């Protein structure tokens, strides 16, 4: 189980960074987890985009090397809900830990296009 502090930050050795600039309003309750797959070649490209006013972002990002970054509080809304590399052990770990900690059933985990059309095949290879 993950420990989430009062600010919505996950205290886990595997999670290494945070950017609060993409946080919007308060999120009263986590009802589901959406897996979003970015087309960026590096995590740094995503992080650089977070510097712009009104930037879209996700709560967590798993880089190609397996590093997990927390990019927003789990108690805050972001304009995207997940920047996660598919076919990754860390994806399975993160989804399992988030569903357990936040009490979200596995039936409430979605690929991005299932809840908001972007690219029909996005996160199509993601497995949890």
Quick summary:
The chain has 128 residues and is an alpha/beta fold. It has helices at residues 43-49, 89-102, 112-115, and strands at residues 3-4, 10-11, 33-35, 60-62, 68-70, 83-84, 109-111.
Helix-strand sequence: EEEHEEEHEH
Q: What count of domains describes the coordinates?
A: 2
Beta fraction of the residues?
5-15%
Give the strand tally.
Answer: 7
Unreliable stretches covering 5 or more consecutive residues? 81-88
- Based on secondary structure, the structural category is alpha/beta
Whole-angstrom Rg? 13 Å
Main sheet characteristics: 3 strands, mixed
Would you write up a description of this structure?
Strands 5-4-6 form a three-stranded mixed beta sheet, with no helix packed on it. The longest helix has 14 residues, at 89-102. The protein folds into two domains: 3-78, no CATH class; 85-127, no CATH class. The model is unreliable at 81-88 (pLDDT under 50). The two termini are 16 Å apart. The protein has three helices and seven strands. It is of the alpha/beta class. The protein has helices spanning 43-49, 89-102, 112-115, and strands at residues 3-4, 10-11, 33-35, 60-62, 68-70, 83-84, 109-111.
SSE layout and pairing:
Blueprint: E1 3-4, E2 10-11, E3 33-35, H1 43-49, E4 60-62, E5 68-70, E6 83-84, H2 89-102, E7 109-111, H3 112-115
Parallel strand pairs: 3-7, 4-6
Antiparallel strand pairs: 1-2, 4-5
């Amino acid at each position: 189980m993950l420990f989430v502090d009062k600010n919505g930050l996950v205290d886990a050795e595997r999670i290494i960074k945070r950017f609060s600039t993409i946080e919007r309003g308060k999120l009263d309750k986590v009802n589901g987890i959406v897996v979003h797959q970015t087309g960026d070649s590096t995590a740094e490209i995503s992080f650089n985009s977070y510097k712009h006013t009104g930037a879209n972002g996700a709560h967590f990002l798993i880089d190609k090397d397996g590093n997990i970054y927390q990019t927003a509080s789990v108690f805050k809304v972001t304009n995207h809900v997940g920047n996660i590399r598919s076919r990754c052990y860390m994806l399975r770990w993160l989804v399992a830990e988030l569903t357990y900690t936040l009490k979200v059933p596995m039936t409430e985990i979605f690929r991005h296009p299932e809840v908001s059309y972007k690219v029909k095949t996005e996160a199509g290879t993601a497995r949890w």
